[in-house]
Each structure stands twice: as C-alpha cells, then as structure tokens.
Amino acid sequence: MSGRLRSEASAYLRQHAGNPVDWWPFGDQAFEQARLRDVPVFVSIGYAACHWCHVMAGESFEDQATAEYLNEHFIPVKVDREERPDVDNVYMSATQLMTGQGGWPMSVFALPDGRAFYAGTYFPPRPQPGQPSFRQVLQAVHEAWDGRREAVETTAASVAQALAQAGEANRGLLGDLSMGPGGGPPQPPGGPASVQGPVQVQTGAAGGTGHQAVLEEAVEVLSGQEDTAFGGFGGAPKFPPSSVLHFLLRHAGASRSESAQLAAGLSARTLLAMAGSALYDQLEGGFARYAVDRRWSVPHFEKMLYDNVQLLRVYAQWAVQSPAGAERDLGCAVAAGTAGWLMDRLQLPHGGIASSLDADTIVDGVHHEGATYLWSPAELREVLGTGDGGWVASVMSVGEQGNVTATRSTLHPGRPLEPDERQRWEALRPALLAARQQREQPARDEKVVAGWNGLAVAGLAEAGELLGRPDLTAAAVAAADYLLSVHLDDSGRLARVSHDGAAQHFEGLLEDYAGCAEGLFSLYAATGGGRWYRAAEGLVLRAETVFLREGTLTDQAVPAAQVSAAAGAVPPADPLESATPSGTGLFAGVLATYAAYSGSVRHRELSGRLLGYLNRIAARAPRAAGWGLAAAQALAAGPVELAVTGQSAAAAALIAAARASGSPGIVVAHTAEAEQEGAAPLLADKPAPADGALAYVCRGMVCRRPVATAAALLEELGATGH
Questions:
Q1: Torsion angle of C-alpha atoms 255, 327, 318, 211, degrees rounded to 10
Q2: How far apart are CA 355 and CA 101, in angstroms?
Q3: What would the pLDDT profile of 711-720 be if each residue is shown by its tens digit?
Q4: CA distance 496 to 483
Q5: DSSP state of 182
Q6: Which end of the chain is more exposed for a tag (fewer CB within 10 A), N or C?
Q7: Cβ(459)–Cβ(313) under 8 Å?
Q8: b/e per residue, 170-209, with b = 16+ CB within 10 A?
C-alpha cells in the first residue's frame, strides 16, 4: 500500500498506515481519484481511543480479502473525528438521518462530490441477526453503484437536502446577529430587532441581577431529569455532565435563592456520585469518557482530555464553594487527582497536552478493553496481603465474579468513603498503583488540539489558583506557551492540530479560537501576565472577523467543498453541545469576559445576542446548552469585574477571597510585578498603594470604593448581590 497515513499528525490515522486497505486522508485528492475512477468514496471515521474502532480494524481493515475488495471498488478515506470535527459532524448527521443512530466507528459511503448516500457504524465480519457483514455491505453498495446509479444519486440529493434543512434550523436558533450603528442591534422599521433577541439576562440599571427566568427554568428542568438513585442525569449510557455542572455551580454561587439552592444540590449530588464511581480512576485520578450503566460501575475506559479539563475546573470550584468539611476535602482531592493524572499522563515534553489515552490495552498483541484498570480479589491479596487485600475488595466493589470480565472488576466504592476508610485507602493506594504501573499501559494519542488545550490552560490555571498549587499554574503556562508558539502564526491564524511540535494546515474552528481565548483569559487572571491578555484579545477579535459575517455565525472559516456538498451548502453553525462546549457557547463566554476587561459595550451586546438561542433551548434541552447557560449566568451577574493593584502576596489574598465567593464568571485583572506592560484596560487609572494591595469591585467599568482586606472585599461583593 502507499502508506499515505504514515506521516499524519493523528495517531488514529497512523494506526491504520499498515493496513492492506489503501487509505487516503480526507481531502480533494481522494475525492478527485473517486471521480476519475468513477467509484464511490468509503469514509471511515473514528478516533484513537475508540475500542470498537480497534475491533473493526482487526476484523475487516486488516483482512486481506476485504481490503482487496474495498480497494478495487471504492476510494477508502480514513478520518480522525477529533482532528476533523467538521467532517465527523456532517457525516454523523447523515448517519443518524439514515439509520436513526450514530457512533464510532462510522462507515459512510459518498459520491465523489462528498454527498452521503448510505451509512452505518460498526459492521461485523460475519452476518449477525438483523445486521449484515461488512463484506455484504460493500457488495450491496457496489452493486447499487453499478446497477442503480440514478437511485443512489437521488438518495444522496435527498440526504443533502434534509441536512440543509436541519442546518438552517440550527442557524435559526441563533437569529440575526447583525450589529447596528453604535454597536447596538439593528432596528427594522416599525418593529423590534428580532423575534429571537438577546438572552434575557441583562443586568438592571441599578445593579440588580435582572431577569433570570431562562436560567431558573433550566435548573428546574434539570432537576426533573436527575437520576435521584445514582446521581447524574438520564440513564445508561451515562456521561459526565461537565458543562452543565459548570452552569449549576455558577447559578448556585449567584444568590441565595431557592433556584440557587436547587442548583447547589444538583451539582453536589452528581459530583459526589462521580467521585465514588468507576468513572473516576480511584488509583491514579482522571475520568473515563462515560459509564455504560446507570450505576457508573462499568466505564468505557478511554480517558479524554476534554472531559478531564472541564471536570478539573468543576471540582476545584465546587471545593471552594463548599463549606469546610467532607465535601470540600473530596472536591480538592478529586481536582488534585485529576490534575496530577493530566500532567503525568497527557502533558508532553514540549508543554502541549495530548488528546487521550486509549480504551484498550494491548496484551500479547491482542486488544483488551480496560485491561490495565481491572482487578480480581486474588490480585488485590497478592499485592496487599490477605487482610488489606480483602478489605479493599470489599470496599471497592471487587467480587469473585467480575463486573467487567468474568473474574475482574473496576475499583470503585460507589459511595463517599468514611474518614477512617479514606485514611486506610490512601495508605494502601500507592502499592496498588505501583503494581498497576507494571502492567501494559494504554496507548496515548499525542496530537495536540488547540481548543482542548485552551480549556486545559483554563482548568489548570484556575485549579492552581483555587487550590494553591503553583505547579498547576506552571503547567498551564507551558501549554499556553506551546499554543502561541506552535499553533498561532504571525497573521493570527490558529491551527487546530499539531503533532510533535509541528502545526497542521487545517485552520481552527470557532471552538478552537474561543477555547484558546478562554484559557488565556483565565491564565491572565491567575498570573497577571499581560501577554496572556493581549493574546486572548487577538484571538477574540480575529474570531469575530473570521466566523461572524453579515450577521451570520459559522463554526468553520472555510468549509471543505465535500463537507459543504454533504451539508447541502449550508455553512455549519450549531450552538448545541455534546461532550465539549459548542463554539457558540464558548465564544459568547469569552466575548463577555473581553467586554468586562476592555469596557466594550459592543462585545457585551454581541455576547447577549449570541446567547439568544437559550430562550428556545433552555427549557427543552438544557443538557445541550450547559456552557451557554454558564455564560448567560455570568452576564446576569455583570459579570463582576475585580481590579486588584499592589504587592503580589497581598493581591493574591484578595483574589482568593473573591474566588471563594462563587460570583459567576468573575473577571479578575491584576498585574504581575515582573510584567507591567499589556495590562487589561480594567486596571487603568487604578494606582497601586505604597504597600499592601487594593481591590476595586466594578460593573461596566464603574467601580466602587477600593478596599484593602478580604473581609471588606466580601462586603463589597455582597453589596452587588454576590
């Protein structure tokens, strides 16, 4: 085979470089070959950590006869969904439209122009009840292509038209984002700006919290969706509701209302349940992608960067918002464990942070899902002795009959440990971890994704600040330095992916620009380094010009021709969320932060207009809008602007007090003593005292009198409703 995938940034693509299948990477050349040969394109989409992707690869893509048939009658294209979410999104929509379900590996058959006409997910090597084999699918598609071409093209046209209608519906959620003279919304003759309008969370003129019905209704709906028996929301499979927890904690910190108390309870119960579950690695820290059961006892074992950086931030914030005691201690422990795992297992020598750890462990050449993490009672006794091993088996739900394999189980208590249990467990844990590290370990996908690394910078910077861990802040600085030196070029263009210190050609999506700005603003708040503020500002302003054109938001700067054809020529703009925040929600959040730092009324107004989709979504699907709701909660609170001047130690004490207040989305500006240039405008005309520090609580750049003590600062925050 040609080995076209050998030099790709994606570990997933490189995993397939040695297949007998003659793979092409996604691009114009592959589709042009399909046109020249007059054959359909087979698009196979997955990711490096995906268990069932490995299964289908071993069964079909490594099979010589299957590969020969595929090569003869198709142009096979391999896509990493994490590297090219634009390709994944459009073909996932097509797959769900045609089959009613989706997942990975995804198997899509497309015309040479990119339009899909048949799709599925995993296909087995031999027929199963109700499911054809992969060879049968290939033969049927080939026969349809040769004998019923007109029907194939009609199907492709119908799918593209349906996706265009769905795309227009998504765009309709956002409404018209045009800005009128002076930065306000446009005013058509004789009517309001738009039916959709900005989200109704504007701050009142007298400094009140304004109308929060949208946010309170979202909390009420989430309460009705809670799994009251086992925590979290919904049934199996159960995913960590990371962005929803981000919103709930902000709502809980906004006031002492009944809705805030409801949000506090929802978030606490979910965080407690996940901390004691098999989703959380009790030995090493870090969270698996999801649990296959409602009880959180059997995880799907891949560990993704995007999950862990969001949960790191959430657990750290929960810890500081909780009163001293068991919940605060647990929040700190889980945040510290997650951060430690992230730095030990994912941070690369150059500072960037890798994408994931695989679900599978390869033992004697065979993929075994989760093999690294599983234990039998006998294995526990072998490491710890009979008494301690038996105690761990009892407390950590490890029985003679395994819950994952016949004899092996995950370690999880399924409940918060009592103080004496926690003490004994922490004493025994190092020996078990050392023994586990002697086993074969899951592979790491070392591609660096810009947006996820931006969220990692935010999580590490905030956790470092909240937990008093300068090593976490240093890790955030290293990742931010990598993003700016490798992913960002001199023109301000941001690459989505890099590998081994080299950026790839594909430009970042809206979620990448906004995610990196989110991280850099957080790092500025944590360190006072003006270069982080300047870099974040540059990303926000470029994103505005690249992704917002004539009042219309897009998720991608210039869609690939094949993606555009598959989507019915409707530019992608989807504000709804899945495991990661949407580009819309992230962008709205950084616009609000930037407006608070800079005083830009126009960017604050744009943030509110972007969040207008919440007026329709919050009551129907709040779990698909968590980050947007969190951004709206910050807008409802102002967000509160805190400018701190003076000596670093005294300033840090004031900032820590403000962080602990739980004020939603509080924006902090201060200046590192070693870096005086490039500070945010919020700090302008606020002199530093001769000794100590001063804190100014502001809203809309209008500041209250400065205070010098944490107690006085908390009084000032209370006076603004926080």
A1: -20
A2: 25
A3: 999 988 876 5
A4: 10
A5: G
A6: N
A7: yes
A8: bbebbbbbebeeeeebeeeeeeebbebebbbbebeeeeeb
Structure tokens at 50: 């995906």
Structure tokens belonging to residue 12: 């997933």
∠ at Cα 489 (485, 494), nearest 5°?
95
The string of DSSP letters for 415-470 reads SPPPHHHHHHHHHHHHHHHHHHTTS----EE--EEHHHHHHHHHHHHHHHHHHT-H
Structure tokens at 692: 């100590």
Using alpha carbons, select from 451, 447, 478, 485 the residue that is nearest to residue 464. Answer: 478
Maximum separation of any 2 CA atoms in the chain, in Å: 85
Tokens matching residue 361: 């462990």
H helices present in 643-722, as ranges: 648-660, 710-719
- Report how far residue 51's alpha carbon sits from residue 361's, in angstroms, rounded to the nearest whole number: 10
Structure-token pair, residue 537: 């500002």
Contact by Cβ (8 Å): 51, 360: yes
Tokens of 335: 């945040």
**Three-state DSSP class for residue 499:** strand
- Mean predicted lDDT score pLDDT of the chain: 91
Do the strands 497-499 and 693-699 form a parallel or antiparallel pair, or are they unpaired? Answer: unpaired
CA nearest neighbour of 301 among 366, 367, 242: 367
Residue pair 304/579 in contact by the 8 Å Cβ criterion: yes
Q: What is the per-residue pLDDT across 106-158, written as a single tens digit (0 to 9) for each? A: 999 999 999 999 999 999 999 988 889 999 999 999 999 999 999 999 999 99
Q: What is the rounded distance in angstroms from the CA atom of residue 722 to the CA atom of residue 716?
A: 9
Residue 207: CB partners within 8 Å, gap ≥ 6? 699, 720, 721
